[in-house]
Design brief:
Length: 190
């Protein structure tokens, strides 16, 4: 991807973020976005089919970046650092996350839950960890786990992200007993 392509997408994302503070996504027009971004409509359409495609791509770009953070290292060995990096990524682009969380079209809560589900499935030991943590059948434990993750992140974003990435890591680790659960599971493997 060229530098110009990346810059244009950045301008569009910044314009969208700013405009979503002023009006709803449903009321936004391509003209609003291009005017605010300082680009032509034709340039917008080189990148996106419409505003829904734009939102879907921007959301997916962020989820892909988060997924990369969560899966690039060894979350089972360095859970704390991986989670801090994840919350730091969100905090770094907090304004965008906050406005999309308020956008009905995005369905932020479902996006978080689906994303967490995909991440959990990418770890082979996840099923054992969840069963050991809750002591209930996997599918029930998984729903509680996902609901807890979604609820904590949604609340953090909705209330302005006052807690630092380190504080959020501590909160989510305590609620989900991540350190204890992973430690217990690693002992069983050894």
């Amino acid at each position: 991807m060229s530098k110009r392509h990346t810059e244009t997408k950045t301008y569009i994302k910044e314009a969208l973020t700013h405009l979503l503070h002023e009006k709803s996504f449903e009321d936004l027009t391509i003209s609003d976005i291009t005017r605010k971004a300082g680009i032509n409509r034709s340039t917008f359409y080189l990148h996106y089919k419409d505003k829904y495609d734009m939102m879907a791509q921007l959301k997916q770009d962020n989820l892909d970046s988060l997924y990369h953070i969560l899966t690039q290292g060894n979350i089972e060995k360095d859970t704390h650092t991986t989670l801090v990096d994840t919350f730091a990524y969100i905090k770094n682009d907090f304004d965008f996350f906050q406005v999309i969380a308020k956008t009905a079209y995005v369905n932020f809560s479902k996006s978080i839950k689906d994303f967490a589900y995909d991440v959990i499935l990418s770890f082979p030991q996840a099923q054992d960890i969840i069963i050991n943590h809750y002591g209930v059948p996997y599918h029930y434990g998984l729903q509680v786990y996902l609901a807890s993750i979604e609820s904590l992140i949604s609340y953090w974003v909705a209330t302005g992200g006052k807690e630092s990435p380190e504080e959020m890591t501590d909160i989510i680790s305590k609620v989900l007993k991540i350190d204890e659960t992973i430690s217990h599971n690693n002992q069983q493997i050894e």
